[in-house]
Design a protein that fits this description.
434 Repressor (Amino-terminal Domain); 7 helices; 2 domains; mainly alpha; about 110 residues; about 0% strand
């Protein structure tokens, strides 16, 4: 991937997550000036910066560079559920996970 493709992918992820560069900056901890500079100079983000951006998008670095990420096969309802989960705090995600585990343990085979 060249710099232009990486920046295009970041922009696409921002759109699908309803992030502005400002909100991406806040969520990732990457300064807004750094993000703006990447686009102004059409340059590559550093690996640590890209990792922080991926964390903000709740994807792995591997997912970022994969053509068809695992979410490509999810239904619209599943994608909506994942988007809602991403809005939860870490603690609330842990509660949700425990709740789902409890629901699944009560299922009959």
């Amino acid at each position: 991937m060249n710099a232009e493709e990486i920046l295009k992918k970041i922009r696409k992820l921002c759109q699908s997550n309803h992030y502005t560069l400002y909100s991406l900056s806040k969520k990732s901890g990457v300064p807004l000036s750094t993000l703006s500079g990447l686009y102004a100079r059409n340059s590559f983000p550093s690996i640590p910066t890209l990792i922080r951006l991926c964390e903000a998008f709740d994807i792995t670095l591997g997912d970022f560079f994969t053509e068809n990420p695992p979410t490509a096969s999810l239904t619209e309802k599943e994608l909506l559920f994942l988007k809602k989960v991403r809005l939860l705090t870490t603690v609330k995600r842990q509660y949700l996970n425990a709740y789902i585990d409890a629901l699944l343990s009560g299922q009959q085979s």
